[in-house]
Amino acid sequence: MVAKEYTAGEWVSAVRQYPRFWNSIRPHTLLAKSGAQGLEPYVRKFKTLYPALRPASIYFTVGALRTGGTSQDSLILIGAELATGTPDVDISEFPKATQTFLANNYRINPIKHLIPLNVHEYVHTQIRNYGRNVLGQAIYEGTCDLVTQLVTGKTMPYAYTSYGPQHEAALKERFKTEMFVPSFRNWFYNNSSEDPDHVGDLGYYMGYAICRAYYQRAPNKQQAIREMIELDYASEQAVEAFLATSRYFGATPVAALKVAYEKKRPFVTQVRPLANGSQLVDASLKELTIEFSQPMRVYTSVDYGAGGKDTWPNLKKVGFSPDKRSITFKVDLLPEHDYEFVVTDGGFQSEEGYPLKSYPVKFRTGK
Fold first, then answer.
1. Number of C-beta neighbours around residue 258 at 10 A
2. 268-365 maps to which CATH number?
3. In angstroms, what CA-CA distances link 29 with 12, 22, 83, 214, 303?
4. How remote is the C-alpha of 198 from its chain's centroid?
5. Under a CB-based contact definition with an 8 Å cutoff, are residues 296 and 321 in contact?
6. Among candidate residues 118, 109, 107, the one with its CA nearest the CA of residue 33
7. Residues of CATH 2.60.40.1220 domain(s) within the chain?
8. pLDDT tens string 52-91
9. How far apart are CA 253 and CA 251, in angstroms?
10. I need a labelling partner for 41 at 20 to 30 A (CA). Which of 61, 147, 269, 288 fits?
């Protein structure tokens, strides 16, 4: 309940709405104990590869259909209703999107892959911080996939492990300019598409490929494993240095890849009806419209400027234009007053997920 914010009501609702599902999954969940009994030898092997391995405890619990596996500190929680299913489980009671998610999950017969799935989660208990962008998150998940392979001799049982090698050249080109994006939606945790040809979680494969390149180039393999596990994935400098050392993109400097990424980012073209830095703006002005170089997702993020609350023009959102290329705010201005605010990259993104370049707005009102 703490790790995934489940509530008692959520379980009650799930039990009441999907009785056929629970009756069909129950015999599978009872196999969880026998399916996990073979894990101990792999934990011992993990410790030979990474001597600093800390103990962790794995719990099989019946969740409310939101997670197959998660970790918190030294604890691993396996959602038994997802991790033990097979394609014959009755999912007919669920909405279409949930049916798609469950069908994709059960298609791999996860009950047959409990060892690699649990080793992957065990690795998570040893590492710190999520990535702050696609690259950091890719290396974060890729480390777990590569170490799982080194420990068990098996790859993860998901579609991305076969799709990735077959389409790696195209994925690398796409990843080049998207790996610095802070939004994960194009690369991670996106298995619910109703498109039968959709392959989700391709960021896992890209991270695995980068980590494999790093490991293969390392003269000291045990040290390479330690460096991967102990990397600060939230540090952009650390993950970029890791990428450079892996030479996954050959001799191309990371700085050059960032230049290509910057060219994809949207920017503010103007703020109507004023020019930035305007003097003596009419204090009776009631609206400002911010225009963008590209259509934006319907997010909003504006913040105080350097002057803080004293120079905040009391912005209140009116809404986006139909083409999503501008957003209008109401303002409440005083005469002979300095105003400033920042249109931030934290909440404005292009439809492709590229974050806006932050844009400070400053002006002064007249009498």
1. 15
2. 2.60.40.1220
3. 18, 10, 8, 38, 49
4. 18
5. no
6. 118
7. 268-365
8. 999 998 888 899 988 888 888 888 888 999 999 999 999 9
9. 6
10. 61
